User: Which sequence fits this backbone?
């Protein structure tokens, strides 16, 4: 690594770029979690709707023979279990929270992209950029507070990190000459 590369890694502008990458990571991560939660919610709703005795599914002739009767009993038991656990899971609250996080991180990401473009256009990392970045950091703190209580999926996070590394490699970022 040359001296110039070493200096570049120590440049304070990397704080902006690291937050930009982290925001993109969180968009991908929470979007995937949101998609999973919404699919789970849909599946649970479909099972509950199908298990109602007045549903079209209940009228299928397949349930009339002996194996079908056992399958229907298992299906109804599953739907009863889902109906029981649904309030305790709090999936609607989690979906709302994940949606707020995705939207919040998207706003933060676009704010940081704007700062990145201003740094590139001005060809320096000036006090004005630092003030705008500080405001972005304050918004990030509020988002981190909203993350409280959510379970961590390390394998999903690692997959998202790889995507971000490919999307936003170090060479993508402009490093001003002065500090």
Assistant:
């Amino acid at each position: 690594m040359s001296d110039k590369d070493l200096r570049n890694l120590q440049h304070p502008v990397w704080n902006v770029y690291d937050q930009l990458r982290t925001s993109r990571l969180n968009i991908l991560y929470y979007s995937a979690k949101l998609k999973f939660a919404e699919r789970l919610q849909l599946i649970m709703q479909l099972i509950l709707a199908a298990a109602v005795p007045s549903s079209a599914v209940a009228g299928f002739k397949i349930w009339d023979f002996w194996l079908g009767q056992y399958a229907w009993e298992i299906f109804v038991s599953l739907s009863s279990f889902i109906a029981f656990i649904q309030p305790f899971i709090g999936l609607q609250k989690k979906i709302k929270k994940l949606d707020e996080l995705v939207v919040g991180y998207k706003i933060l990401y676009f704010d940081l992209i704007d700062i990145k473009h201003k740094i590139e256009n001005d060809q320096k990392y000036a006090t004005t950029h630092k003030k705008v970045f500080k405001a972005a950091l304050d918004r990030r703190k509020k988002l981190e507070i909203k993350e409280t209580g959510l379970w961590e999926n390390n394998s999903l996070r690692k997959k998202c990190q790889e995507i971000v590394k490919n999307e936003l490699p170090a060479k993508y970022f402009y490093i001003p000459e002065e500090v």
